[in-house]
Amino acid sequence: MGNKKQKTRRVAVQKLAQLKRLVSLKDNRLKEKDRIIKQVKEDPTQLKVIEKPKSSSALFFSYNTQLGPPYHVILDTNFINFSIKNKLDILKSMMDCLYAKCIPYITECVRGELEKMGQKYKLALKIIKDDRFETLPCMHKGTYADDCIVNRVTQHKCYIVATNDKDLKRRIRKIPGVPIMSVSLNRYTIERIGDSFEPMSKRS
Questions:
Q1: Per-residue pLDDT reduced to its tens digit, 85-101
Q2: What is the DSSP secondary-structure string of the chain?
């Protein structure tokens, strides 16, 4: 009885081996580990098509020709709140930072964010209602300001973004020619202005 079982098993193994020889090692019916995957070699002479975002016509080499006094500064909610906490006058501190006239801009979604925050941010709302603050209309739905600011400065390279938000800063740094203003050590600091704005000495 035992010999019969062994014989049957041997016959089954032999048949399986024959079947494997018939099935190609590249056959999709085989498991991935048993299958030989053919790797397509790239032709070095073939041209590669790479899609890149269109560069702004305002960028001349590494300089942004649309930047210059008076500076147009878009403020986000975070920056306004940091300015209040550090007791900084927004307009005066901007001029002290850039040594030139600055025009602060508030998007409708930033205003909406401050209104949603309630009475705690009443002072911030009072500050941005000043006539010297310009309002930028928003065409999008909702009040999420970060996407709005990123889209705006991507399309129009004439703005400086004022924010202390780490995620927003990271996103703005990926956009060439857009400087970032932030609150640090009880004053405003500017980064990337040298990469964005051509110094006057080079223009003459």
A1: 999 999 999 999 999 99
A2: -HHHHHHHHHHHHHHHHHHHHHS-TT-TTS-TTTSPPPPPPP-TTSPPP---PPPPTTEETTEETT--SSEEEEE-HHHHHHHHHTT--HHHHHHHHHSS-EEEEEEHHHHHHHHHTGGGGHHHHHHHTSTTSEEE---SSS--HHHHHHHHHHH-TTEEEE---HHHHHHHHTSTT--EEEEETTEEEEESHHHHS--HHHH-
